[in-house]
Amino acid sequence: MAVLSPTFTRGMRSLSASVELESAPEDVFSLLCSVEKWPVWLSFLRSARRVEFGKPIELGSEVVLRPGVAGAPSSEEEQLYEVDQFITNHCLSLVGAYSARRRVDFRVERKTARSKLHVRVTYPSYHGRLASVFEWWRQGRKLFAQLESAMTNFKGLVEYRRNDAVLADL
Q1: Which residues contact 12 (CB under 8 A, 6 or more apart)?
Q2: What CA–CA distance (Å, rounded) separates 4 from 94?
Q3: Distance (Å, rounded) from C-alpha 41 to C-alpha 151?
Q4: Would you state the pLDDT for residue 77?
Q5: Angstrom distances, CA of residue 116 to CA of 6, 126, 144
Q6: Sheet containing 12-21: order of strands
Q7: Confidence at residue 28, expressed as pLDDT on a 0 to 100 scale
Q8: Predicted local confidence at residue 79, as pLDDT
Q9: Domains of the chain (ranges plus CATH)?
């Protein structure tokens, strides 16, 4: 089950989620590095693509994301992000190219043969605390729910094994 927590500090809104996975960290990180597959499991993204298609993702790689949260004013605009932290099989972090206040962080923890995925989405919340409460009521709750379903979708994608005995009759 995903563990979710919203926070608000100094004009920034941050949503965090984590989920335990019955997969090796290498498999988890491999799926994380497949940027074009992000909209499959991250339902709050309408599209995701690498600027330099075909090259492996690394420090300094550029990624273009188009958010898809209903009611979001910037949901039609593509936003450029840059990989600012990259540790193979452990950490992938994106920061907005034109706004360092926008971040998407993925962190994978090794737990013997299992792993744990942590995701944090940080974005600016303008016009003070009252406007932040209104923004949370208007679209933050939707993003929160979509992040929860994203954790479930990712768990299903990374744990799916075609050769499992349970699926043998399919």
Answers
A1: 101, 122, 123, 124, 125
A2: 20
A3: 8
A4: 81
A5: 19, 32, 19
A6: 3-9, 12-21, 114-124, 103-111, 91-96, 79-87, 62-67, 45-50
A7: 92
A8: 87
A9: 7-160 (3.30.530.20)
Q: What is the mean pLDDT of each run of 10 residues along the chain (170 residues)?
A: 52 83 92 91 89 89 82 65 93 86 90 89 70 62 82 89 55
Q: Are 72 and 65 in contact (CB under 8 A)?
A: no
Residue in the block written with tokens 């540790």: 87
What stretch of H or E contains 142? helix 141-159
**Residue showing tokens 């790689």:** 61
pTM of the predicted model over 0.85: no
- Total Cβ atoms within 10 A of residue 71: 8
* CB neighbours of residue 167 within 10 Å: 10
Between CA 86 and CA 112 the distance in angstroms is 22
pLDDT at position 81: 92
State residue 2's pLDDT score. 47
Per-residue burial over 29-68, b = 16 or more CB atoms within 10 Å of its CB, e = otherwise: bebbbebeebbebbbbbeebebeeeeeebeeebebebbbb
Residues sharing a CB contact under 8 Å with residue 139, sequence separation 6 or more, in sequence order:
69, 70, 71, 72
The residue type at 11: G
Contact between residue 119 and residue 151 where contact means Cβ atoms under 8 Å apart:
yes
